[in-house]
């Protein structure tokens, strides 16, 4: 069984690759999850994922699974109300700090469960069992947890590292095409910010990736997780290098906010944000002119959008970018591309270049 360690001293944890473990199609690595979870287990999932994978998951725990909370599906439910409901269920079930929470689902379930685990009785262990591509390569690794506030996305949260992350690529076979592509946006982001060789590998493997070939997906998820794990190990709480992972996100969050959450998926907004960040990087003379076209080809091959929805206004967009929590109090911080495979964070904003990028992507359309 393959595994990667996220190196964080006494909070280090493994990301284990167990194809078929959750879908129940193979017994490989059967014990990993059960052993890590301990004697008392509480599962959080949503209506969709529970319908698919709760029964096979339960088999790992037997009578050690002492409860479950099934939340409604969707980003709209990434709220404090859900945290309250989970905590209510844990208290009603008499759960102590010995209970391990299991997050079975995509990034929404992972973020909600992670935050509930961070705050229940000042912190209980959580095991992430991500079932979307986005969650497998991004949200389940690194310990960021959060829920949304009406005034801003991910505005209430905590860093709380999981005890383990369990990847079953076979769960990705039931994911919709749109959600699968949304996960590929974070993968392209990883390659663009950190690894030119990975970018070329993605270009060369477009067909098997889109066919969801299991071996290819495993290799890709492992590559992305290694990139993310290395960055998190260096900068757990985003004091420096971890901000690189926000490539495309400042633009992307503005797109999500202005189009209304759920209209443009997070990964889709990241794809458009990557194009905008690349355009800005060229205009501010950091990046060669041919790079955005190469990025565009890869995103398009992965069935991702490269332009924001029509009708977004520049003033509102700028405001939404500034309100992003990733903007410092001193002003905006952007991640720009130096090359495909190399990024840097800057707070020295080239105002003219930014205006031109917004004009090109918003006003001209
Ligand atoms: N914590 C972090 O570091 C971090 C990083 C990136 C994104 N996020 C957050 O992650 C969230 C997005 O996550 P997401 O893209 O996984 O969305 P999601 O959790 O909403 O899942 C997308 C959809 O796929 C369904 N689904 C999940 N697994 C499935 C499966 N195997 N088969 C069929 N359907 C399945 C879900 O029910 C949902 O309808 C956002 O809230 C974002 O803010 C967090």
Pick out its properties.
binds nicotinamide-adenine-dinucleotide; two-stranded antiparallel ribbon; Dehydroquinate synthase-like, alpha domain; single chain; alpha/beta; seven-stranded mixed beta sheet; 2 domains; Rossmann fold; 365 residues; 17% strand; 14 helices
Give a short summary of the structure.
The protein is α/β, with parallel strands linked by helices. Helices cover 46% and strands 17% of the residues. The protein has two domains: 2-174, Rossmann fold (3-Layer(aba) Sandwich); 180-363, Dehydroquinate synthase-like - alpha domain (Dehydroquinate synthase-like, alpha domain, Up-down Bundle), CATH 1.20.1090.
Please specify the SSE layout and strand pairing:
Blueprint: E1 2-6, E2 13-17, H1 30-37, E3 41-46, H2 47-58, E4 65-71, H3 80-92, E5 100-105, H4 107-119, E6 126-130, H5 133-139, E7 144-149, E8 152-159, E9 164-167, H6 177-194, H7 196-204, H8 206-210, H9 214-234, H10 249-259, H11 266-283, H12 291-301, H13 314-323, E10 334-339, E11 342-346, H14 351-363
Parallel strand pairs: 2-9, 3-4, 3-5, 5-6, 6-9
Antiparallel strand pairs: 1-2, 7-8, 10-11
The structure holds nicotinamide-adenine-dinucleotide.
Nicotinamide-adenine-dinucleotide binds at residues 46, 48-49, 52, 73, 75, 78, 105-109, 111, 131-132, 134-135, 138-139, 142, 144, 154, 171, 174-175, 179, 182, 266-267.
């Amino acid at each position: 069984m393959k595994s990667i360690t996220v190196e964080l001293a006494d909070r280090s944890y493994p990301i284990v690759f167990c194809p078929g473990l959750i879908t129940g199609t193979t017994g490989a690595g059967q014990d990993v999850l059960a052993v890590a979870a301990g004697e008392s287990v509480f599962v959080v999932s949503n209506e969709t994922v529970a319908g698919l994978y709760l029964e096979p998951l339960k088999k790992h725990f037997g009578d050690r699974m002492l409860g479950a909370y099934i939340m409604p599906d969707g980003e709209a439910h990434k709220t404090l109300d859900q945290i309250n409901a989970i905590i209510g269920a844990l208290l009603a079930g008499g759960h102590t700090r010995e209970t391990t929470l299991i997050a079975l689902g995509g990034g929404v379930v992972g973020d909600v469960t992670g935050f509930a685990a961070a705050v229940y009785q000042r912190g209980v262990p959580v095991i992430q069992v991500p079932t979307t591509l986005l969650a497998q390569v991004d949200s389940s690794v690194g310990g960021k947890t959060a829920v949304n506030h009406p005034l801003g996305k991910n505005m209430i949260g905590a860093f709380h590292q999981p005890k383990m992350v369990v990847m079953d690529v076979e769960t990705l076979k039931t994911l919709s095409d749109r959600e699968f592509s949304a996960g590929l946006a974070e993968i392209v982001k990883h390659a663009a910010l950190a690894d030119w060789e990975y970018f070329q590998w993605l270009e060369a493997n477009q067909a098997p990736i889109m066919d969801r070939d299991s071996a290819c997906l495993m290799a890709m998820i492992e590559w992305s997780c290694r990139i993310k794990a290395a960055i998190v190990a260096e900068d757990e709480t985003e004091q420096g290098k971890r901000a690189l992972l926000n490539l495309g996100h400042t633009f992307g969050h503005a797109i999500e906010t202005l189009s209304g959450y759920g209209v443009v998926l997070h990964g889709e907004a990241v794809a458009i944000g990557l194009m905008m960040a690349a355009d800005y990087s060229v205009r501010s003379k950091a990046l060669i002119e041919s790079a955005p076209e190469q990025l565009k080809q890869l995103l398009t091959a992965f069935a991702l959008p490269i332009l924001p929805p029509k009708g977004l206004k520049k003033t509102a967009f700028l405001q939404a970018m500034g309100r992003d929590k990733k903007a410092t109090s001193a002003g905006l911080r952007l991640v720009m591309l130096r090359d495909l495979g190399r990024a840097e964070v800057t707070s020295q904003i080239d105002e003219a270049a930014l205006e031109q990028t917004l004009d090109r992507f918003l006003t001209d359309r």
